[in-house]
Amino acid sequence: MLPAAARVYIPVVVVSACGALVTGPREGTPWATAAVLAVLYAAGERTGASLPPVLFAAALLLPPGAAALVAVPGGLLAPVRGEPRPVRRVWHAAQLALATAAAAQVRTAFGDGPFARLPGLLVPALAAVLAFCLFSAALTAGVLVTAERTAPSAAWREALLEPLAPHLTYGLVGLMAAVLWQGPYGAVAAVLALLPTHIARWVVGQARRERAAHQATVRALVQAVEIKDRYTRGHSERVGRASALIAREIGLPPERVEALRLAGILHDIGKLGVPTRVLRKDSPLTPEERRIIELHPGYGHEMVRGIAFLDDARTAILHHHERLDGSGYPYGLAGEAIPSSARLVAVADAFDAMTSTRAYQATRGVDDALGELRRCAGSHFDPLMVQALIRAVRREGWNPAVTADEPESFAPAQARRHARREAPARRTPEPRP
Fold first, then answer.
1. Fewest C-beta atoms under 10 Å: which of 62, 81, 243, 265?
2. Is the distance from CB of 101 to CB of 107 less than 8 angstroms?
3. Between the CA of residue 317 and those of 21, 55, 258, 379, 385, what are the distances in Å?
4. What is the Cα–Cα distance from 230 to 232, expressed in whole angstroms?
5. What Rg, from alpha-carbon coordinates, does the chain have?
């Protein structure tokens, strides 16, 4: 149910948009141009690659009412999130129509003469873009305040600052399309000019959707591990953050930084293959149970084998418990035989194991943990990775959060289990298996 203020505000905006639309019929209005632009904009919205330059071209080529009509079909066809969808679609169409009408009104206020052709046309075109941004931002801020109860200052910043720079760029593309439309080649040249923008936005949209799907996959995997082994709650995300700090500090390119961040987040995914009774056992592990839990890097490696975007993370997941002196597992690799990605994640994992704040466990300070890593550099950990983490933490700081806000009925059992199983790990930066 929408708040009362939103139930008043949204109809007022919709009625205002209808008022702008009825001013459309005017003698000499180029309806063919309006129809082509409306189809172009609707097609872009429907395919998930919205084309704001079309609206800016409409504001430069058409009177305000006709320009507003260009935005309506696309606004009604655009994909929306959340409920109620019909209200959101109508709102979106009304907002675009009013903003486009305002841009066209500003453009017509400059009249003809020097402002009807380049370079003088740049001034009214810029004014029209700014009018569109301000009007659209004001309407969006209004719905954020009334429907979502956002603070007015925060709503205004969100609605205006983020789209301003992109819309200035789209305004230039819309200006180019409008000039070409009035040239000797007409609509064909203008559409061809808009086509690269449409393709670029579609590609960016696809990449954004793919990234969102990747993030959802990672979140689901991490949540599955944390449900099974509550000790790891929040640990995965922090290891990912520390891994990214180290990767940036040693100068890796952005794509490698992201791959290692994912490796840090998913380094314990193999625990899904370990029996829950072993992960949650209250008493110390037997040698057989420890051998079972030490299989989790191999399980994790196999679990992500078929996920293409995690290919770069697989090696780190498999070898993050190896140690430079050969005392680690699962293969007892030593020195340079351990992949660099695994050496990096191992440092991040140990650092968080020492600094995590939990309701049932005392924690080491950041300086103490970094000192312990430095002491074990060369035997357990790669000195290059340790020094990189130290520099990054000294510069950017580290804020470990509470990661085990379990009910009181659960915390004592966790505390006893952790004390019995992890006491040796408190003497060295060896994270929980």
1. 81
2. no
3. 59, 49, 14, 20, 17
4. 5
5. 29
Task: Return all residues near 142 (Cβ < 8 A) that are at least 6 apart.
Answer: 9, 13, 155
Tell me if 337 sits within 8 A of 328, measured CB to CB: no
Q: What is the pLDDT of residue 232?
A: 62
CATH of 229-426, picked from 2.40.160.20, 1.10.10.60, 3.30.70.380, 1.10.3210.10, is 1.10.3210.10
pTM of this structure: 0.56
Sequence ranges of the domains in the chain: 4-209, 229-426
4-209 in CATH: which number?
A: 1.10.1760
Tokens (6 digits) for 280: 């949650």
Convert the pLDDT of each residue in 280-324 to its tens digit.
Answer: 777 788 889 889 989 999 999 998 887 877 887 899 999 999 999
For residue 59, which of 124, 113, 134, 111 has the smallest C-alpha distance? 124
- Whole-angstrom Cα distance, residue 326 to residue 124? 71
| Residue-level pLDDT at 429 | 44
| 3-state SS class at 57 | helix
Residue 209 has pLDDT above 50, yes or no: yes
